[in-house]
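ARCHIVE RECORD
Type: protein–small molecule complex
Small molecule: guanosine-5'-triphosphate
Source of inputs: curated submission
Record status: active
Notes field left blank by submitter.
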Amino acid sequence: MKAVIIIPTYNEKGNIEKLINILEEEIFPQIKNHDMNILVADDNSPDGTAEQAGVLAKKWKNIDITVGEKRGLGAAYVRAMTYAVEKMNADVMFEMDADLQHDPKKIPDFLKKIDEGYDMAIGTRYSGGGSIPQNWPIQRKMFSVFGNLLVRTILLKFSIHDWTGGYRALKKEVFLREKEELNSFKGYTFQVSFLNKAVRDGFKIAEVPFHFEDRTLGDSKIAPISYIIDLLKYVIAASIKEKLFGPFGKFLVVGGTGFVIQAIILRVLVELFRYDPTAANLLGAVVAIFSNYNLNNLWTFKSEKFVGISQYLWKMLNFYATSAIGVIIIQAGIIFLGDTFLGKKYYFIYFIFGTAILLVYNFTVYRFIIWRKKPHK
Ligand SMILES: Nc1nc2c(ncn2[C@@H]2O[C@H](COP(=O)(O)OP(=O)(O)OP(=O)(O)O)[C@@H](O)[C@H]2O)c(=O)[nH]1
Ligand SMILES: [Mg+2]
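STRUCTURE (tokenized, with ligand):
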């Protein structure tokens, strides 16, 4: 595969020379099964970083440079990744800081994950032996650790430990699908939104632990206050949107339509056709479940939609069984337990509680068993 290490730079003249020398002399010679290249993405640094990179590009033929206007790191990545894909034919791209904070010795570990079939590999400082600089002041350490914990908690996505880091490898397909996210924020929040979108779209993501070195040369470009405000705004909005308009919200809407269908059938059969209410209710349930199944299949979980007839019928059987178990065992069971042990007086509270547990149970079975996410193609 053709791999391109993208190094965004703004006033990193001293660092870029050091980093490129390490990559070319120590790291690339170890990698035999990939074609390794470098792309420096400079935003007209006044210190002459691009000219310095130009000198290095004369020495090594696998270095490209793209120079553009300074419009933030995310914008620099969009420009560079587009260049890497279109002009360099990259299959895999790395995001790597110029300031030597991202240990270049880890590059083979990232490539190994890509070779194993992952779409993206994320450098992590918070799991599996990764770490942050010992000498950072306590407030910076807290900012970093709690910032990530907060992102994981608000998004309810715990399997990824480092959301804010910028040491990553990704296949070009991930970039082509998610590039809008790179441009969505002026600060560094795009790293979080990009990763979150990739997770949501089902890309396979691995973690690579590394020790984050302290910056020794040049100045930091991060603006902590506006960063944390942006980050909080994004994760809270994304989380609300995902819960409300994502599968769980749709699942609730579908459940609501099922309730209405069942209620109408019950009324019509009893009032107009003099049916026995128990039988009418059961008939209504059968129709409502059928409607729920189809709406969930076509809308709630449309990316996991069943197409083949046998799969459709088999999953429908599962869906009826799940619904029956939920109502008979979970909802009725909770009401029964409440009635028996706490008294009949509060039956309606047990009903509400039983229904809440039922919803969680149903959604969990639908999401993780019936419409389980397929690995990304
Ligand atoms: N092209 C480009 N590069 C940028 C821009 N902002 C930051 N960078 C580069 O992105 C990388 C990360 O920036 P840093 O300032 O090191 O951010 P940080 O690592 O979070 O902060 P420190 O730990 O203080 O270094 C560095 O290589 C910067 O030169 C930008 O607007 N344009
Ligand atoms: Mg840095």
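CURATOR ANNOTATION: The first strand starts at residue 2 and ends at 9.
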